[in-house]
Fold these 2 entries.
Entry 1:
Amino acid sequence: MNKTFWIIIATVLTSALSLAQKKKELLTEVAQLKAKAAEIQLKLDEAQAAKEVNLDNELQKFSYAFGLTIGNNLKMIGYDSLAYQTIAVALEDVMKGTEKMEQQTAQEHVRTAIQQLEEEEGKRKSEEGVAFLTENAKREGIQTTESGLQYEVITEGTGPVPVATNKVKVHYTGMLIDGTVFDSSVERGEPIVFGVTGVIKGWQEALQLMPVGSKWKVYIPQELGYGPRGAGGGTIPPYAALVFDVELLAIEE
């Protein structure tokens, strides 16, 4: 046999050995991937199990109720997402006495973060209200007073106009500028009686312009409404412009 033949044989054998080695390595990699997948699935199962709540267990029931209370308070001030695992770590650290941050530092950080969030949300709400009222003022039939109060006469009454010392009976529906209803005497089926000066500035001004029997749609800028404090436990956000359907039924004796 010539030299070329042996070279061919050697090449074929080398290729076969190389393919066998690659196949072995591939099988090893596949086995490792399967093991990794099984490990990941186990962790996912454990995570899912950790989310399951047994409200018949007193400790879990208390823990869940406590979490709901914290979550609702945070949601009310504007947080819509948190690092939930970090909260769990912090709670466990406190229980074990292994805190990674001093209590005073933590309180200062939380206070600063909440204040910053409230300022940002307040600025956003204020800008939304200004933009809404600016566009609304352009509509036909909208009247704007010197204070910035806007109103639209739906029905013009023929009765007397209240003064600051009067009590009045009204029906109303209060809305945010997106149309969300936050309060309504109409829905309750019972009008409300109050002193003209016992309500927000926007109402005080509007009532002293309305003849009895009138129905108006009143648009109130935040500075004539609830301003930075908001109202209704978060139902009316801070710095929110408001819209009211108001029907002045009577001046009470």
Note: The longest helix spans residues 3-51.
Entry 2:
Amino acid sequence: MSLEIKVPPVGESITEVVLSRWVKNDGDFVEMDEIIAELESDKATFELTAEKAGTLKIVAAEGDTLAIGAVVCSIEEGGAAAAPAKTETPAAPVADKVSAPVAEKSGESYATGTPSPSAAKILAEKGVDAGSVKGTGVDGRITKEDAQKAEVSKPAAPKAAPSQPVAAAVAGSRGERREKMSPLRKTVAKRLVTVKNETAMLTTFNEVNMKPIMDLRAKYKDQFKEKYGVGLGFMSFFTKAVCEAAKDFPAVNARIEGEEVVYNDFVDVSIAVSAPKGLVVPIIRNAESMSLAQIEKTVIELATKARDSKLTIDEMTGGTFTITNGGVFGSMMSTPIINAPQSAILGMHNIIERPIAENKEVVIRPMMYIALSYDHRIIDGRESVGFLVRVKQLLEDPARLLLGV
């Protein structure tokens, strides 16, 4: 008896996922709750586990787009007996030789030359006969990649025929490489375009003298790490400054819903983190009630999860204000795009020693440009400039962050 393993519900707004990687191979024996594959949605990566022990029979191929509830694979009983048989020295070779041809025949009976749903759609749109495509999937199944290659091969033929350009060939490599956009990248692209089209986005700039914070860090970093177990970074200061400034300018921490403006009496700060599969924005919940140490611990925890692709949807859903730090990559100035449905985003940049006038004297100070992009539909110029000036004041006099003045 076999059990079908289907795509589980992974979120209210998610209707399909991509099978990004098989952890186990077709025919492998798997234990109950063992990870067999990875599924990728437009928000996060999920692990698919075996719902019982048995032999894995793969149905969907890597790269296939699957609807919620679609069959990914099946697990057949009886595989457990075959696994220990391999440990018996005389019987193992015989069992392997007999079982392999049977698996191939059973696969050819229904999968060989049969396109997956996504592959069939591509072939139909391009008018390509499935019989002319060689499948490279499990048991000869035609995958989406096979279908895409088939449609590319048609225009490629006439280009290859004329060999005249060889004489005018340019020295050096001129190769191209195509990669399918990940669900995460597609979603980010759509949202960024939507924000540009549906908001009245403006950006205002200011600069911050980072010397007071850097002096404070240098003086107390050892005691801070010894007491709290984390380093004292810049993100905690900026997060606290944003929370304090939001008290004076609540529109910056609000959002538009229909014909209403929703004001929040809390600050959930989204922090932009560069992950292996793209930019993600995990959230520091109720940052206004956190200490510097609590913020630093949360930032490290979320950043580590992002790098390991372990963030959950709940950890990335919501947020009332975003902070992004392009300075870690060397950015001197930028105009960050609002993270909808939020109304504002603060951009940090790299710190550069520059000459400035201080007490009528020219001195060298570590300076950072900061940028606030905001939705002009809800935030006026006076509020945006006032908010950024307030953030600047708090950062240049860190004692205010602790005293709340």
Note: The two ends are 70 Å apart (CA to CA).
